[in-house]
Amino acid sequence: MNAFSVVNVNLIQTYGDNKMIDAEVALTIVLRKTRRLAPRKVPLLEAARLILAEKVKATGDNPPFDSSAMDGYAIVASDTKKVPIELEVIEEIPAGKWPKKKVTPGKAAKIMTGAPVPQGADTVIMVEDTEPAERGRARILTKIEPGKNIRYQGENIKKGELLLEPGILLGPSEVGLLASAGKVEVKVTPPAQVAILATGDEVVEPYRKPKPWEIRNSNSYTLAAQVTECGADFHYLGIVPDDKQKLVRAIRRGLKSDCLIISGGVSVGEYDLVTDILRQMGVRIHFDIVKIKPGKPTVFGTFKRMPVFGLPGNPVSSLVTFELFVRPALAKMMGKDEAARLDWGWAYLAERFELKRKRRQFIPAIGSAQKGRLWVRPVKYRGSADLVALRDADYLIEIPPEAPPLSKGKRVRILRLPGRPANSSL
Predict the structure, then answer these.
(1) Cis geometry, peptide bond prior to residue 94 (ω within 30 degrees of 0)
(2) Would you kindly state where each structural domain of the chain is located, as residue ranges?
(3) Distance from C-alpha of 39 to C-alpha of 335, rounded to nearest angstrom
(4) What are phi and psi of 217, to 5 degrees?
(5) Which range is most confident: 145-154, 331-340, 345-354, 412-421?
(6) What is the pTM of this model?
(7) Cis omega before residue 99 (within 30°)?
(8) Which residues pair with 260 in a beta bridge?
(9) 208 contacts: CB under 8 Å, gap ≥ 6
(10) Helix, strand, coil: what percent of the chain each, to 5?
């Protein structure tokens, strides 16, 4: 479920540029301004994890003929009224071969799993309930009823039957179903192509040894992992220094994608150039400051209906704002159900917690299940540059603005961090 409620459009219109807006308003703007990508056909082997964009009907029956569900003998059930009985084996039918002879009383056809049931046979007895006999005969040891161990034509799927509706996430079983229906191409909402750009004179790639005033670029790699986890594709544009002309060139490349994410350069410092450059390049900025911690300097705009995000440079702020705003946008772009966009839930505080802030906050926490309840406890957290805290955490606890001290046992809203397993026992 979404922790943020849908807000009235009139509330959105009361906020202008350069004003702090609530997280609920920000998310509503993001979702209203984000458009679903145009469907296209892809080969079936590339369709997994994508959203189906067409109705699919069966082009034929499944199974396409009466087939054996077991290795054994195709026989006439009435022959087993008195057992044991010996039957003459008239042919052997492997899978992929069509029967040549008709089975009549006193006769049997040796048959393999998946092979067509021969004319005249009304049941298949498992090989375990038989034994070989002399002179090409088989001894039937147990009585069997008609219709056993036969998969009848069309019992799974009838020709013309609706198999899949648009909007379904294509998993392994859905892809297999499409293959069984003869679909070699399928219309889907494609994966979003997301450009990732890092900014800052002080930022260097991980393979570089930083100088005393430099830091390694973790944000782009974190964002690439988050984008991939969403089912989208990323294109890394590298690091651009705080230089207007270089930023313009890099952003222009990024604006050719379906979505652009820029890390850093979006605050109000003298070298935070990104927001003004975006405006000058024709990006309509819908908000540039959000009432949350971490993640206050978060920018969202659109360029010809394409979403553009400017995320804070601090690693935790970047990760959290991606989860709150970018992940839902990518989900909408790729046609995913709203319920799948964010993994919100409820838990109980395992200890008293006090935090006096005016902004909504998200605190890294670890969870444990006890007696059917999920209990969460904040981990040691040193602020928005502390990725170690997120390494140790399973959830983010949401602390509403102006919240009073929270006592032990207080029910709180939580967001499961990406890649953390869901607690299926709760």
Answers:
(1) no
(2) 9-38+190-340, 41-60+158-189, 67-151, 344-416
(3) 9
(4) -80, 100
(5) 145-154
(6) 0.83
(7) no
(8) 195, 308
(9) 214, 216
(10) 20, 30, 45
Helices H, strands E: what count in the chain? 9, 27
Residue 318 · residue 222 · CB < 8 Å: yes
Q: How far apart are CA 127 and CA 72, in angstroms?
A: 4
Task: Centre a 10 Å sphere on the Cβ of residue 96 and count the other Cβ atoms it contains.
Answer: 9
Other C-beta atoms lying within 10 Å of the C-beta of residue 64? 13
9-38+190-340 fold: Molybdenum Cofactor Biosythetic Enzyme; Chain A (3.40.980)
When pLDDT is cut at 50, 70 and 90, the band that residue 118 belongs to is: very high
Q: Judging by beta carbons within 10 Å of its beta carbon (0-12, 13-18, 19+), is residue 424 exposed, middle or buried?
A: exposed
* Amino acid identity at 73: Y
Note whether 105 and 79 are within 8 A (CB). Answer: yes
Q: Which residues pair with 123 in a beta bridge?
A: 75
Q: What does R_g of the chain's alpha carbons equal in angstroms?
A: 31
The Cα 198–Cα 247 span in angstroms is: 10
What residue type is 101 in one-letter code? K
Q: Is 167 in contact with 335 (CB distance < 8 Å)?
A: yes
Alpha carbons 317 and 264: distance in angstroms, whole number? 10
Residue with tokens 């830091």: 215
Q: What count of other Cβ atoms lies within 10 Å of the Cβ of residue 93? A: 23
pLDDT at residue 87, as a whole number: 98
DSSP assignment of 31-57: HHH--PPPPEEEEGGG-TTSEE-S-EE
CATH topology of domain 344-416: Beta-clip (2.40.340)
Q: Residue type for 184, please?
A: V
- Two tokens at 364? 């890294």
Query: CB–CB of 109/90 below 8 Å?
Result: yes
For residue 376, list its beta bridge partners: 349, 367
Query: In this model, does residue 89 exceed pLDDT 70?
Result: yes
Tell me the DSSP string of 321-360: HIIIIIHHHHHHHTT--GGGT--EEEEEESS-B----SSE
In the block, residue with structure tokens 């395992």: 350
Tokens in use for 371?
């007696």
Which residues does residue 74 pair with via DSSP β-bridges, in sequence order?
Answer: 109, 124
Among 3.40.50.970, 3.40.640.10, 2.60.40.1530, 2.170.190.11, what is the CATH number of 67-151?
2.170.190.11
Strands (E), 46-201: 51-52, 56-57, 67-68, 72-75, 85-93, 107-111, 123-126, 130-133, 137-140, 150-151, 162-164, 185-189, 193-199
> Amino acid letter at 93?
I
CATH architecture of 41-60+158-189: Alpha-Beta Complex (3.90)
